[in-house]
Amino acid sequence: MAQRLIFGSDHAGFHLKMALTAWASAKGFEVEDLGCKDENSVHYPEYGRKVAQEIASGRAEKGVLICGTGIGMSITANRFHGVRAALCHDVKTAQLSREHNNANILVLGARVLSESLAVEMLKAWLDTPFAGGRHQDRLEMLDQPTGL
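Structure for Ribose 5-phosphate isomerase B, as requested:
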């Protein structure tokens, strides 16, 4: 069974999302695009929320969010319990977000990345397993009450 990969973007990330969904489909992933559906201006939190809810509920294991810089999508997604959305800017940060942080959402900035680099980053992110061990201990610390 193909691994499910969900995508969301705002208008700024629309074209990059289309390129990445095409790449992922060609690689055999079950791709689900939660929007947006065109270049018309939209509010990024609507689409960040859709993907984050799928991850937080357990209906999906991995997702990709794209906006102009990736910052807004990161802020939105990380408000959901169990979501570890990582804004990455190169292949190394994409790999480490999986290896050390077990990121379940890759966040990309369409205005700051080339399409070819974004594809390389997605490939690296999908191919990199979580290391566990001391990194698991650190993730568990994130779920502890902060007292705030």
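The helical segments are 14-26, 44-57, 71-77, 91-99, 115-127, 134-142.
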